[in-house]
Design a protein that fits this description.
The protein is built from seven helices and four strands, in the order H-E-H-H-H-E-H-E-H-H-E. The protein has about 190 residues and is of the alpha+beta class. The structure holds flavin mononucleotide.
Length: about 190
């Protein structure tokens, strides 16, 4: 992946609107598979230390204090995600970043609207796709990174900033003939 292409994606993403100007969003650029793999290694370590989040004992203990949706999210999504990530890693499969040749980590200050980094990443994704690149937004990494002081400090500066979302990008193996048709869960006209 040429650095010039990443710079063009970043230029487009920097035009994203923000809750209160100027932008409080920062971007960490991982250029090249080696850099992305090193990032995946750091995150796998964090996932390994977070196994307790989905453990039956932890879930049973906190069940009375959390809502049904949070309980089911931890049990049916977070726990299997941690398990799968670590199993894939043992087999040499990068299930976090799909062995992408580039990744952008969007982070933001505590004063920013929590949506800011996501909107900037969405702009990056649309720009990349318009350039014939492909990619995937990765939302699973930031919450884990924000729980680990050491790994967060390695990538996200200044210290008070929080990781928001990762966008991995590269050259797509498949080209879609047409856009995927989707529907909102609901549309209510009032
Ligand atoms: C906020 C957000 C977070 C996402 N996080 C992940 C992720 O952590 N891992 C992943 O493989 N895909 C992730 N995705 C990609 C979605 O799963 C994917 O876009 C969706 O299933 C639709 O599939 P498509 O984009 O291939 O059409 C995320 C997408 C969004 C919008």
């Amino acid at each position: 992946m040429e650095l010039d292409k990443i710079d063009r994606v970043l230029r487009a993403a920097s035009t994203a609107p923000m809750g209160i100007p100027p932008s409080d969003v920062g971007v960490v650029v991982f250029h090249g598979r080696e850099k992305v793999r090193a990032f995946a290694t750091d995150m796998a370590e964090v996932f390994g230390k977070s196994r307790w989040l989905g453990s039956p004992a932890f879930l049973a203990m906190l069940r009375p204090f959390m809502g049904k949706a949070m309980y089911e999210f931890l049990k049916n999504f977070v726990a299997p995600l941690v398990q799968l990530t670590l199993e894939c890693r043992e087999k040499g499969i990068d299930s976090l970043f799909y062995d992408a040749p580039a990744a952008l980590l969007f982070h933001q200050s505590p004063y920013a609207d929590p949506a800011d980094s996501h909107i900037a990443a969405t702009y990056a994704m649309i720009a990349a796709e318009s350039m014939g690149l492909g990619g995937c937004l990765i939302g699973t990494v930031a919450p884990f990174m924000n729980m680990n002081k050491r790994v967060k400090a390695k990538y996200v500066a200044p210290d008070g900033n929080k990781a928001g979302i990762v966008y991995v990008l590269g050259y797509p193996a498949f080209h879609f003939q047409k856009g995927v048709r989707r529907r909102f869960a609901s549309v209510k006209r009032v």
